[in-house]
Amino acid sequence: MLADLQQQLSLCGSKCGRCFLRCILERSHPGDHSCKGDHRCKQMCTYCSDDNVDASASVILKTQVNGCSDLAGHEGPHDCKQKAHTCGMDCSYAGKTSNCNKNCSLKARHEGEHKCNSRQHMCVEKCSLPACRNPCVTPIELGDHEQHACHEKMCPAKCTMPGCNRNCASANHFHDLEQRNPFLNHHFCENEHQCTEQCETPGLCEVRTEVVKKTCTYRGKRSTFEYEHVSEQNGNRKDCCIAIPPFKVSIQHLCL
Questions:
Q1: CA 139 to chain centre
Q2: In the chain, where are the structural domains located?
């Protein structure tokens, strides 16, 4: 029960599909990633706040401070984008990365390429694991890379033991791809499992005597009467009562 509860409370942690906050849905959930918020930054504009202070006279001016217009969870300073605080042109990495904030956050009329307030731009490709929908988190500054890896470190597959729905305990996200032998392709959780086979000890585990009522007629030389009493004995083989240890496929099947 504790293992099941721990799995249900494990959060996804991937980037929200509409902003830069983390997804708070259950780990390995279906559908899009969501932070369950309105995806808008709640902070006040950094540049408006700086304009309120006269550095030469150390005087606080009473000018309007606007709210930030960027997406929630963005990096760098907050920009209202209602005043000409920053360049505002499209970032050089717009559409090429998964965490680009689109607009250039450098000062107006700056020199060089346009760059948003993301400190590192991540690869736009999906994770190389076929069943994973998370984006790659490798910075594009590192150049080309053969394997795209997301933020997730654990194997997303379910335990292969019958009746178990817990996640695989392997800390290798690409665990499923690296198992080439189909006879060794197992995913195990960290818990023991109840054996589903029958006891294999020679003989019968239990003999049950059951009374089955059946009407029969006794016919003698002098009288005839009916009676109800027939005993039947049935042999029974019980299910195995020994738990399979973690990371094991089977054991010797015994009953109590």
A1: 23
A2: 15-26+34-85, 86-152
Report CA torsion sign: 109, 114, 117, 119.
Answer: negative
**Averaged over 160-183, what is the pLDDT?**
79
- Could you write out the three-class secondary structure of the chain? CHHHHHHHCCECCCECCCCCCECCCECCCCCCCCCCCCCECCCECHHHHHHCEECCCCEECCCCCCECCCECCCCCCCCCCCCCCECCCECCCCCCECCCCCECCCECCCCCCCCCCCCCCEECCECCCCCCCCECCCEHHHCCCCCCCCCCCCCCCECCCCCCCCECCCCCCCCCCCCCCHHHCCCCCCCCEECCCECCCCCCCEEEEEEEEEEEEEECCCCEEEEEEEEEEEEECCECCCEECCCCCCCCCCCC
Q: How many CB atoms lie within 10 A of CB 52?
A: 14
- Asked if 167 and 154 touch (Cβ cutoff 8 Å), the reply is yes
* Token digits of residue 164: 């178990």
Using CA atoms, how far residue 245 sits from 7, 15, 42, 168, 251, in Å, is 20, 37, 50, 15, 8
Closest CA to 167 of 188, 153, 183, 152: 188
pLDDT tens-digit series, residues 89-141: 999 988 888 888 888 988 888 888 999 988 889 988 889 988 888 889 899 88
